[in-house]
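Dear colleague,

Following up on Tuesday's group meeting, I ran the structure prediction for the two-component complex that the binding team flagged. I've pasted the input sequences exactly as they went in, so you can double-check that nothing got truncated or mislabelled along the way. The structure tokens for the whole assembly follow below. Feel free to forward this to whoever is handling the docking comparison.

Inputs:
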Amino acid sequence: MNPPFYHGLRVGMLGGGQLGRMLIQAAVDYNLHIRVLDPAADAPCRPYAHAFVQGDLMDYDTVMRFGQDCDLLTIEIEHVHAGALAALQAAGKIVRPDPSIIRLIQDKREQKLFFRQYGFPSAPFRLTETAEDVEAFAEALPLVQKLARAGYDGRGVQILRSRADLSRAFDAPGLLEDYVPFAKELAVIASRNPQGETVVYPVVEMQFHPEHNLVEYLFAPADIPPHTAHEAQQLARRVLHDLNYTGTMAVELFLTEEGGLLINELAPRPHNSGHHTIRACYTSQYENHLRTILGLAPGDPAQHTPAAMVNLLGAPGHSGPARYAGIEEALRMPGVYPHLYGKSETRPFRKMGHVTLIDPDPARLHAKAAQVKALIQVISA
Amino acid sequence: MNPPFYHGLRVGMLGGGQLGRMLIQAAVDYNLHIRVLDPAADAPCRPYAHAFVQGDLMDYDTVMRFGQDCDLLTIEIEHVHAGALAALQAAGKIVRPDPSIIRLIQDKREQKLFFRQYGFPSAPFRLTETAEDVEAFAEALPLVQKLARAGYDGRGVQILRSRADLSRAFDAPGLLEDYVPFAKELAVIASRNPQGETVVYPVVEMQFHPEHNLVEYLFAPADIPPHTAHEAQQLARRVLHDLNYTGTMAVELFLTEEGGLLINELAPRPHNSGHHTIRACYTSQYENHLRTILGLAPGDPAQHTPAAMVNLLGAPGHSGPARYAGIEEALRMPGVYPHLYGKSETRPFRKMGHVTLIDPDPARLHAKAAQVKALIQVISA
């Protein structure tokens, strides 16, 4: 790496949201100079970035111009112009993770084809181009329809349970997955450097909001048998290896009712299923993203204390300047740590922050997570 | 607190060095807007502050002007114009810790008088005004002479061992302490909020550079008998209580050869003997400084893993752009975490950063600290 990282290496980050904000917190210790490109004038990263450029992540020229002033480029969101990153790479810039992997993961069909080609367990699927195509598979209902592109936080994904649902099938290229009833949703974070050195975090368990497909609770480590945890970690390790991946990645999985594992999807960046690694692990997913993209040895991912994460989502019916009602009271409970994203305006179900809870006793941890969830309400002032 | 902290409360910080830099890292999670006053154009805080004012911390008008734009004022260095802070307080600003305590601690004579008045164990002393006064106490040699003001990092402190040393006695108001041979130098960090809620960190042990009176190694927890640790923590708790203190404070102590404890001095702010709390404790001294000055409950100070800290001081004979030779290799060792202060120029013995080491095994921890110390050299590029 030239200049060496400690000389204020200019790291360009595509995306300036909360994940980037936590990356910058970690970057301070390494004296990295983080430059941010984000479309929002009030992006959570802006106050802490060495430079902030407001612009469209999907615009080729914007990304190209932004990249000129950076020594190394990375992402905190995968909805970026991967072609521009590839062109910057061709022009000699270091881009991590590799633009070809970002492009693969952007397309849920390519992801599935990768799983199939490399023998990773994943729900059976078929590709479709139009809503009409979908009808041809009515025999296989229930099915999960996923758009090839632009799905994020549950957008572009729907369950088609019966023939009646076919009328609302997406009319765009995508895929149809077998609907696999699952016992749990799991995630494994792993980080790998260009030399191939890989660390894998303990498996976590996510509980989603029943309607809004956003993680509501996370528990780490997951309450699953040790052999299942080991298998999930091995799958993650193999994904990073087979992609020749550099950086931190999240591998989301389903634990089926029969106890098997299926990979759901990948995220080529730090992920909200790894927020707790800041408080509960020796090295956070953010720090390890930086260490690995810099070509340094990844740090110890071991978890020292059981943890939970509660997302602070904007309360339904509230829009405007945010108030975190109940937060002072929640902070009176031992092991409760807030992470506010600095978004001044709340909206229903907007991710406004999260709370990490740590407690040596898993039963108490679960109880505290429910208490914190009930206590803190993100409402308009 | 008005506005509530999560609405971007404007916290004015006097001093913008490495302690402030770590305070800002913690402040991100609470969405505090930190405004910094520091005399150096390249202060370590500058890239991360919501506002940066270059100016003299000891200048009344500068501090007054700076304070106008803040909701709450705090310090990361005690060499500030305490009178200006008192005037800001009188004008309705919240200042934490209280300016009267900052003033007391700025003056080593007042500190000693406080210890005496409140019955805290501390080395016997006498006040002196001039070098001539010092000679009158020649019978009591060896003695430690301390200037009343402006001592920092060992400046303004000297040991007078024999009559020959009297010729170099400081000719300014100060004090003469009995020279107490000590077995160890210890420190206790504690944080207290205005409601009186107090948390006390495990006792740490500092090893100083033989010539430069700068901490070279720190080990946490200290290798001392449990009853001594308890006594040190109780002393710290009582100091904060008796001062009616708000914020994080460091209490430095000597463990005498007989096993007794003497308070050496106080620091009314986060302290370099608490750097390791970021990596090794559930809540860092920085986060607890913020929580307590905001009137929030302090977080759990318990340490989850034994830790060491190695200061990265500029190597003798090197001045200019800094190079951290050996750092990549040091990061290959498990449990090694760098904290670089972003100072571009090194000078002999300048504090350029530190490394925190964590390891469940104390013997291995000591060995690793020595290895890291030998590996990383801060030299000019």
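Chain B touches chain A through 46 residues (CB under 8 Å).

Cheers,
M.
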